[in-house]
Design brief:
Chain lengths: ~375, ~425, ~425, ~375
């Protein structure tokens, strides 16, 4: 968590908490039937009304943040959502907004789209993975072909978060002169969206096929010159949200496991009195603090637009995603058998963390990126 | 049986090979692994397969002849198991029916219990289970709260059990209950052999994160048992449970003489090893992936080598019985490392399945969710480490706040 | 000094920057790291550098003006430290002289001790050390056996100490001794401030596996000390030692206000990071090597982020003082991981040097030999875990067999 | 250790122990001045008289093993030598013998050389690494050029164990038709041997330059057809010796650390009574058993010439070398400060294990080899 919050931030946080308590119960998540939607648009709309899609959008584009530091507010919010494994398009909407805002002023104008996303009227998502592929947006095989007035898209994306529900797809594709990002209505002719099994029960995924999909020139986001930095911005926001939501989840599960250590007796004394276990709690507590430290440092850097922001988000992702696994699996171990039952909360968090670890670059991917960024 | 009558291992092996080829169905290598949580059919099939083995004279290889077995050596059993590669086998019956329950009855049961239960299991007519753990218990098995009270000649059982593996498929279970609350915990327990369909016994299946429903929980409400249901002596149930735990460690570690037949691919991974995942994700050419697959190959191999060495050493007395905990601990480590490596190898693909199916890689993701199963089932890894340090390395025992204290005065937690 | 008189951090920073540029020698980036075990010259140099800082008005930034310091805030100190990048600095004096010994004297010393020792250190005239650990002691510092007995007004000191960092270069040391054997261990200790050249004090340097000789061992034979040598109260030495331990954790973790100047590359690795090794071995193109270098970059970065966050939180009271153990534990982990990664990256080259010199890669091999140094120095990682679980997480304390028992009745081992 | 030994093996073991106690003290090793030889030929000669270079050589070539299973006897011996970090050319001499025996019957005859190595009259070593290189014998850059009557060698090898002391160098080189192994006298013209700093104090290394070194056709070991299997045999023997000596060293250091746990008191009770430490002892004990299990299984497979011997030596090396580090470093940790002093024995074992880990393939190298061998 942030160690110090302003009064405004605390209010923002508590309003989020109230809504989350009302709309996002873990029991609902656990009880979802196969194919049943994990979230509904009304609920997302209520979140948007509380500013969940506004933090990183400037006021002139309809956004605004309580603290004036939108990225910090976004991570604060992501922690809250992560602490209850909230379902909904929080991550993809904010990532698309990050791209649209970063591209604003270069290429076609998307101010109206931004406004409707901020208001929760539309939902957008980033279509960046491709079937069978790892994290490699720069090697997109989905082809964008200029048609004269616009573009034609062909190919397939998968692991598209909220793909079934999204109105707009931000598609990272390869054109004749390199990467191009296009904002495509899900309703466009030739777009076929199908559900994809997802490990994380709270984040439905979809496969999206583009079969000769034609869009106008106004669908482009940014320009060839700005696309790399726009992409980088999208990645940074995705990583920050992931790290912060993992931190929020870890806080919750560590606290639960602490309580268990005090309440559960074995051989006439609490688990918390066994040195071998105490030492593991100590390790977890240390890692947890480090997860917060690196997430907050990354958020600061992204907020400030520091030159080392690319490094720091990769540091945070590679570290937090790894430690989240260590901590959560040890929480399971300390709980004993009930930790691996469907009725327990832990697996919901483990699903989220495992999915977060996998997407937008694994720890291994980000370590190699760090080597690149270090000019090795 | 005299030495002269014992068939040589190689002759037995040859005979087994021929018989298997002529009688046992082949495993379908291409069949998908059965869906977790829906394995009733497998149990029907296991009984059928066991009946075939019995009819062919290859059932209960290491059990005594008088209880329906063949009375042969561990070497015979190992030879047979090696020959079963590629055949369907009733491996579900290995644990707990044969290697824990029957093995314990053999050590501690009454003559009647041995004659009836062991032979019925060998014939394929019965499946056995254990009612040991309780929701409040965890590693502290002897701190259990289920009570049995004598009413005339009849024991009345009340309480709750959980983590009973495959109890839903079983006919009989060994149930440990407290029969004296005024003595320290180990001295007030009695073991009962009870029919799973006894009136007053209500059973639920527990759903696990991987969808498995192999564990059950049971509620006992005034279940009535005759005096002959007691295994061993009244208030000496801990001696029986200790044998069960020993046999369980031995069986899980792979050192039991009562385990028959190769299990095929380990179920824990749902058949999805790092090797399979490397193929399925198209990442087999990446050096980092190759390194991880190689690590998995090495761990799996060492795991088998450990079982062979420690099993042999316990057999010859070169290592004492608590050395079985070495197997327990190493098994957990290798199983967990396998799930970690599979996840690493899958990379970004672990998050999703193929269409609406989980697919090969999704199953590795699910296996990862139950990663700790390997260090929880059959006693936690923490207990194994206690065993190794205290029983094998003779280090001082942990202070127990309930030692030598009447059980009704021991502190209990809120969870 | 009133608030009005305090210079702003940014003004101080600007003034420091100018002064450093005009007065302090630049670090020679190409100079080889000094050979371990031969650092006498470094100590002479450290005193010289400290005298320069003092002359320039940049010494003792966070120490009170009345004891020779500047009386400025941690923010001033941090600003100064940031500006020192690229300059030679007397970093040897940070630990233990300033951040442990002087910090403790500031908390617990007599007015005379503070005036004399702190100001002498700030002027660059004195170096301080600690005589705490004993060969039989390990983590159980309070179980020490060195004794001090009062003979009239004079204390007579006998016993043995070890692990005294840089004691050979020091002028004064804080020495903890037992002055009452009839009370539980913490209540019979007294802290003394003693000259390292006192008659009866014999000192050896201890050679470490990496060739370092920074630690000393001392033998005290009837060393005589005046009553004014006592720091704090007689038999209340544990209170003083506790402050030392707190300051040590804080300093090692990087949270001390009395640490001045950037240390450059960490010495533990002998300057040989996985990054350097990847370059030196020509393996930088291998994906597995790049992955490991990236992991090192991440760990180093998180280590700094931890220090900043926890240091700040302890400062504001958001976290209690024992949270310093979080830094201690994480520092050990990141330092150890760095040596492991360096070894992995070096691969087959770690075994050998270049010609008869150990070379860059050989130094990584040597650093690996002292890998555990990071989790032993300044209290073991095990003690840090005890601290975190007991003091930060409020878990029950470990049973201590010597608690509330007169020290002369406590059991002692053979090692 | 082997769980069961025959009476002959026990005798063989105890004769080795007696000599090791006499000739190989750890204090001597610790006290070596820079450049001072770590072992002398007399001492090696005494070992050879006890059969230390005879186990894997058939009787008809002057060798012989006590149990009839030479590879098993070799590993038994290697454990004993490893348990005292014995200095001397045990590994390189046996590796060269493995190659010469494997090649026997194909290519030129080396019976006389074999005999003199067995007798300890000559010392030989394998020159296989090249400066700056990793384990890659098949990519040797040292060039073997046919001269008509024989071969000319050019290039440099390094990390040559006992290179300064060896009479004969088995050089793995690349000829016009692929790998060729040549047995080169260290005294040949153009051979320049220079000492190389070594992490393991007990195993001096050397760099060897070959500058137009001319040898006759009889210097060849094996034929193009047999070279791959001869090389594999050399590797297998090197790996077995490494694994067994690590096992021997681990047994010794674990026992020492166990004793320390009982003897050392902290807070009025022995270290061995602390659960957090007990659990680590339990882990170490488990890994130690696994190290023995895999080493013995590999020895059996090599002894039997099983088809899976290449796999099993790689399994053993990758596992034992990794766990040796874990165990030894934790032994250091449990000892506290004295564990990192020069006067303590632990670093001598750690140096050996670290060097063993590095040479003849690291765990990472062998894991990739296992992937190859598994037809991934």
């Amino acid at each position: 968590m942030e160690l110090e919050l302003t009064a405004d931030q605390k209010l923002f946080q508590s309003s989020a908490r109230s809504l989350l308590e009302k709309d996002h119960s873990l029991d609902r998540l656990r009880g979802l039937a196969p194919g049943e939607p994990a979230w509904d648009r009304d609920s997302w709309q209520r979140g948007a009304e509380l500013g969940w899609a506004a933090t990183i959008v400037p006021e002139e584009l309809g956004g605004g943040s309580v603290s004036g530091e939108g990225v910090r507010d976004l991570t604060l919010l992501a922690e809250e959502l992560g602490s209850v494994v909230a379902a909904g398009p929080f991550l993809p909407v904010n990532v698309v907004l990050a791209g649209l805002v970063a591209a604003h002023g270069s290429g076609p104008d998307h101010a109206a789209t931004i406004e409707s996303l901020v208001a929760g009227e539309q939902v957008a998502t980033w279509a960046v993975y491709e079937p069978g592929g790892q994290w490699a947006p720069e090697a997109a095989r989905v082809a964008a072909t200029p048609t004269g007035e616009g573009w034609r898209l062909d190919g397939t994306k998968d692991r598209v978060e909220a793909g079934l529900e999204a109105d707009l797809l931000l598609v990272t594709a390869t054109g004749p002169e390199g990467l191009v990002q296009l904002l495509v209505p899900a309703s466009a002719e030739g777009v076929a969206v199908s559900p994809q099994w997802a490990l994380d029960l709270s984040r439905p995924l979809a496969e999206v096929r583009f079969d000769g999909v034609v869009v106008g020139a106004e669908a482009v986001v940014g320009t060839p010159a700005t696309t790399p930095e726009v992409l980088e911005r999208q990645l940074q926001i995705a990583l920050l949200v992931q790290c912060a939501e993992m931190c929020g989840g870890l806080d919750r599960m560590f606290a639960l496991t602490m309580q268990w250590g005090f309440d559960r007796y074995s051989f006439g004394r609490p688990l918390a009195s066994y040195q071998a276990l105490k030492h593991r709690y100590a390790d977890m507590r240390t890692w947890l603090e480090a997860c917060h430290a690196t997430t907050q440092a990354a958020a600061e850097a992204v907020q400030a637009g520091s030159a080392d922001a690319p490094q720091l988000v990769s540091v945070a992702k590679s570290f937090v995603a790894e430690r989240a696994q260590w901590i959560l699996q040890d929480c399971v171990q300390l709980h004993g058998g009930i930790g691996v039952t469907w009725e327990h909360d832990l697996h919901l968090y483990l699903r989220r963390a495992t999915s977060d670890r996998a997407l937008y670059g694994t720890p291994e991917d980000h370590r190699r990126r760090l080597a690149d960024l270090s000019s090795l | 049986m005299t030495t002269a009558e014992t068939e040589s291992v190689e002759s037995f092996r040859a005979r087994a090979r021929d018989w298997l080829a002529g009688n046992m169905p082949r495993l379908d290598e291409n069949a998908p692994p059965p869906a977790l949580g829906d394995d009733d059919e497998e149990w029907v099939r296991a009984r059928e397969l066991q009946r075939m083995l019995y009819a062919g004279g290859f059932a209960g290889i290491c059990f005594p002849v008088e209880y329906g077995g063949l009375g042969l050596s561990l070497a015979h059993q190992r030879a047979f198991t090696q020959e079963t590669a590629g055949y369907e086998m009733p491996v579900q019956l290995n644990i707990p029916t044969f290697s824990i329950v029957c093995a314990t009855l053999l050590d501690m049961g009454s003559e009647e219990q041995k004659r009836e239960r062991i032979s019925a299991a060998i014939r394929g007519d019965e499946v056995h289970c254990q009612f040991l753990s309780e929701p409040s218990g965890g590693s502290d098995l002897a701190g259990l709260l289920t009570r049995a009270e004598l009413d005339g000649d009849t024991w009345i059982l009340n309480g709750q059990k959980t983590w009973s593996t495959s109890a839903y498929a079983a006919d009989w279970g060994l149930c440990l209950a407290r029969t004296n609350w005024d003595v320290p915990k180990h001295r007030g327990l009695t073991m009962f052999l009870i029919p799973t369909r006894a009136p007053g016994l209500h059973m639920n299946r527990v759903k696990m994160v991987n969808g498995s429903r192999e564990f059950c929980e049971e509620f006992f409400t005034d279940v009535q048992l005759p005096a002959t249901a007691v295994v061993g002596e009244v208030n000496d149930g801990w001696a029986v449970a200790s044998r069960q735990l020993f046999h369980e460690r031995n069986a899980v570690g792979g050192g039991s003489p009562f385990v028959s037949g190769l299990a095929g691919r380990p179920r824990a991974l749902g058949g999805q090893s790092p090797f399979t995942i490397a193929r399925a994700t198209g990442r087999a050419a990446e050096p980092g992936v190759r390194e991880r697959v190689g690590e998995w190959v090495a761990m799996e191999t060492v795991q088998h080598q450990m079982v062979a060495r420690v099993g042999r050493a316990i057999g010859t007395g070169a290592l004492p019985a608590p050395a079985a905990s070495l197997l327990r601990l190493f098994h957990a480590e290798s199983a967990q490392r396998a799930t970690d490596l599979a996840m690493d190898v899958a990379g970004a693909q672990i998050a999703a399945g193929v269409g609406t199916e989980e697919g090969v890689v999704g199953r590795a993701g699910i296996a990862y969710l139950s990663r700790q199963g390997a260090s929880l089932g059959g006693g936690s890894s923490e207990m194994a480490r206690n065993q190794i340090s205290e029983r094998l390395l003779n280090m001082p025992r942990e202070a127990a706040a309930d030692r030598d204290i009447p059980f009704n005065q021991v502190k209990r937690g809120r969870a």
